[in-house]
Every structure is written in structure tokens, then in C-alpha cells.
Amino acid sequence: MQTNFNESRTKLNLMRAFAGESQSRMRYYLAAVTAQQQFMVGIERMFRFTAEQEEHHAKVFFELLKDAAGEEIPIKADFPADVYTDLQQLLDAAAKGEDKEFSEIYPEFARVAAEEGFTDIGEKFRMIAEIEDKHKHRFQYYADLMRKDMLFRSDDTEEKWMCLNCGHIHTGSEPPQQCPVCAVKQGFYVREPEAPFTSCNIMKA
Ligand SMILES: [Fe+2]
Ligand SMILES: [Fe+2]
User: Fold this and answer.
1) Are 53 and 32 in a shared domain?
2) What three-state secondary structure class fits 200?
């Protein structure tokens, strides 16, 4: 039997999820601005890309609150004050937050929703948790590269690097300090497979 939505814990969890996603979106947007100020454009784009996904998660949860429209929903929740200018700290904090969402928060919200008979809402929590796991791995990937000072260095002398500004591909163990085509700084370069849409090259038309 389904619990009355307005008396459910799921209603509160949806509002917590909406608040959490809205804040992740804003934290990543601000991290992107910080990265941009440091000319770390690959990291900036990655934060922006992820911020946009969080925005859409927020929208999904917000729309699921339509039956409570007009109400004020009081919630108690913990949110991280990840105020850093250091990109390593920002990446580590983001990975940690995503892990908490994936492994603790959303599984619990999904369990409660299922228990209260909100199967579809439970499924949304479960599916969004899976996305947060992808986010965690994305942040960890860049956090690890940065920690090892490998963001712009590879053991492979045939590594392909793409300039995110003009699309120039450079082959070598490091991308150029300055792009030979459009003159932007090294921070615009990412490994080619990390650049959006590049795997189209290997897909059949
Ligand atoms: Fe999210
Ligand atoms: Fe996320």
C-alpha cells in the first residue's frame, strides 16, 4: 500500500535531494570559475559539464514534488562547505561528496521510497545514484592525475592531446606550453579521448 505522499518521508527526501543537487550544481559551477581563473580549461569544462547534469537532477526531483505544490517543506540536512581555491582540494571534495550520494544518501532514499510504495520515485533515486557514481570516478580520475602531476604529462610518447579551444591535436608525452595554432595556454589541452565527441572517430557512421 502506498503512503500518503504529503505524510511521506519520500516527500522530505525529494526536497533534500533537490537542495543537495542544487548545491552541487552551484559548487561545481563555482569550481569551474576557479579553474577558469587559473587557465585550467580542461578542469573547468569538466566541472561545468557535471554542474549541468546536477541541474537536471535537481529538476527531476523538483518536478516529483508537484503534489506538494504551494507548501513549504522543512528539511534538516547536512551540506558541505567546500570553499577552496586549490583545484586539488576541489576535486577531492567533489569526489567525496559524490561517493556519499552514491553509496549512502540515494540508496537510503530509494529504500524508503520503495518501502512507502513509491516505486517510480525509488527508481529515480537509484538511477541518479548510478550517475553520481560516474561523477565520483570522473572527479577521482582528475584528482589522481593532478596529485601525480600527470595532467599534462604522459608515460606514452605517442599520447594524443587536443586543444579544447581550436581542436588541434598534438602527439607527444606532453601538450605544448602554448598551442601552435591558436596560442592558448597548455591548460586548454586534454587527452584526446577526454574531449567531448571525440570517440565519433571510431564509431561507424
Ligand atoms: Fe546529481
Ligand atoms: Fe554528481
Assistant:
1) yes
2) helix
Residue 186 and residue 102 share a domain: no
* Closest listed ligand to the CA of 133: 2
CA distances from 18 to 32, 38, 122 (A): 21, 30, 15
- The last residue of one of the domains, among 107, 125, 147, is 147
Distance 33 CA to ligand 2 centre (A): 18
Nearest ligand to the CA of 19 is 1
* Global pTM value: 0.95
Statement to judge: residues 129 and 33 lie in one domain: yes
Model confidence pLDDT, tens digit, residues 107-155: 999 999 999 999 999 999 999 999 999 999 999 999 999 999 999 999 9
Q: Are 21 and 73 found together in one domain?
A: yes
Q: Could you say which ligand is closest to the alpha carbon of residue 17?
A: 1
Residue 93 CA, ligand 1 centroid: distance in Å: 15
Classified as helix, coil or strand, 197 is coil
User: Is residue 155 in some structural domain?
Assistant: no
